[in-house]
Amino acid sequence: MVSEVPRHPGGFFFVVDVSWTGKRGAMKQVGDYAESAGRIHDWAQQTDHAQPGDPVKAAAIVEIAQAESPPLRLRLAADSVTRVEAELAVVTEELADRRRLVLSTGHEVTS
Length: 111
Hints:
Radius of gyration: 22 Å
Number of strands: 0
Distance between the termini: 43 Å
Shape: flat
Number of helices: 4
């Protein structure tokens, strides 16, 4: 059986060296693109080899893929757990704040 598990943000696992400027010299930045492509270039330079995910430990993907009941969403590394916990806290608070209104929108159940 083939199944698909979407990977959620977290634990950036780069196995390719993104420091392309070392081999050909510094990349020329075009002023018009400094706020878009220039920011991405700067981010790549700053995070190269500093990502929180360990590519060797990411081999856990194989175990997850072979599981009889794989998770709906794949989360790897501590930062992904932190993001999910933060999202759950927001959703829990929103639901608590609007619980009465949310429940009032359904059909009346009669026995």
